Amino acid sequence: MHKYLFLLFLFISCLTAPSVSSAEDYPAGGLPGEGQNIREPAVAGRFYPDSADELSKKINNYLDKAFIESLPGKPIAIISPHAGYQYSGSVAAYGYKAIKDYKYKRVIVLAPSHYSRYRGASVLDVEAYKTPLGLVKLNQGICNNLINNPPFIGTFKQAHKREHSLETQLPFLQTVLGSDFELIPILISRLSGEEFDFIADKLRPLIDEDTLIVVSSDFTHYGYGYDYVPFKKDVEANIKKLDYGAFERILALDFDGFIRYKKATGITVCGFMPITLLMKLLPDNVQGKILKYDTSGSILGDFNSSVSYASIVFTRNSEPPDIISDNNGLNNDERLTLLKVARETLESYVKERKKPDLNSGEYALSPILKEKRGVFVTLNKNGNLRGCIGHIQPREQLVEAVMDNAINSSMNDGRFRPVSEDELAEIEIDISVLSPIKKISGADKFIPGEHGIIIRLGGMRAVFLPQVATEQGWGREETLSHLCNKAGLPSYAWKDEKMEFFVFTAEVFHEEKSLVMK
Description:
Elements: H1 2-14, E1 38-39, H2 52-65, E2 75-80, H3 85-99, E3 106-112, E4 121-122, E5 128-131, E6 134-137, H4 140-147, E7 153-154, H5 170-177, E8 182-188, H6 193-203, E9 211-216, E10 221-222, H7 235-251, H8 255-265, H9 272-281, E11 286-295, H10 296-300, E12 306-316, H11 332-352, E13 375-381, E14 384-391, H12 398-411, E15 427-434, E16 438-440, E17 452-457, E18 460-464, H13 466-472, H14 476-486, E19 500-504, E20 506-510, H15 513-516
Parallel strand pairs: 1-5, 2-9, 3-8, 3-9, 4-7
Antiparallel strand pairs: 2-12, 4-8, 5-6, 10-12, 11-12, 13-14, 13-15, 15-20, 16-19, 17-18, 17-19
Helix pairs in contact: 2-3, 3-5, 6-9, 7-8, 11-12
């Protein structure tokens, strides 16, 4: 019974339908923009909880479980799914976790119109969008300017009555960015070549270091309910193959290739138009990455009908900052505090899936522990590596980064199974607090045992902490050869004239046995 209710839910939420004709079909608030100049939520209570407390708890639970490796730069755009949170919320959380530690002054949301068909894009003439978490204010100056630039941008109010694709992104944005950003919400229907160019030309001047683009889209809609059954055997594998064919073109920003792919396969990507527009908007110096992929078929264990979800992030390729000469070290009390946080986080999360409360008064949090610093947390068991994950670039307060990476190292290091409760007494914790990063002119400037090393060639990159070379007994060339292999490159690739090298130092400290046994 639950399966058929879900299929009905997906069919209603994702099917492209004609324009609505009666306001009686929709929640209180009527037509957005009429009466109060606020767009009332249309799908609260259906696609996501209508209680602020329940909604906040659900989103934060998704975010806590999303593990993001260090990114090469600040995110400029994400592609995020828009089904009911119970199906796609855990996937969406990966994209929003990627932007969580950054600041943005404005967010452009590009979302598909499911219920109305028109030429171009629609910007609703309101002051704010409302969710159970509060109001999201629009940048009215920019929005009014877009509305007053026909023929391909207008209001098309009817399209917004029950549209969920844009609305479902807002509670996640409110959770990770707070209320310090302004929204530019754009609902897109049908676009052709010149219309892509026209709208892209209008939006491109808005994109700077303080702007995030969110594209709302699900991917393959498979099944008779979606009138899309291109194969009947090996359905799960073929859906994934179909989706990853789309991802390949998206990550390459292959505008023409993506259009040809849709024509060739008929792939039912509901956000096809917004994604294609994104390719026109992004600068050349971006790098895309798939953070998470899942399908409703996998969730329900039934591929008679399935919708695919993905979180994809695009980051700017930027040079790491030069090393700061007056980088302050930690005193003994600060080191002990971080080790205590790491140990108690490890114990609490493995046993109860809970984090300690940093504001409980149990931890002496000095100003340096609240600075944003790069840090790795390493777990060793009986002298052998049991997990190691961290951030190269400063992303969050040092004490919070130690807490998050204690969890990630114990639960999310793909090389190992999650740490179990009966292992806790045998695990020792190392913490490596990193200096800022400095680009060096060549491999000969790298000093094994003193420097951590990052290599980058094209889109391939890898990192070793300073202690790796010492622990393994490697010299410079051997370290670089192993690092190239880690990056998926030939061992001699470090000799390539296009290879880039970055170094950093690390302040490394360890648990005492007495602390482990407490």
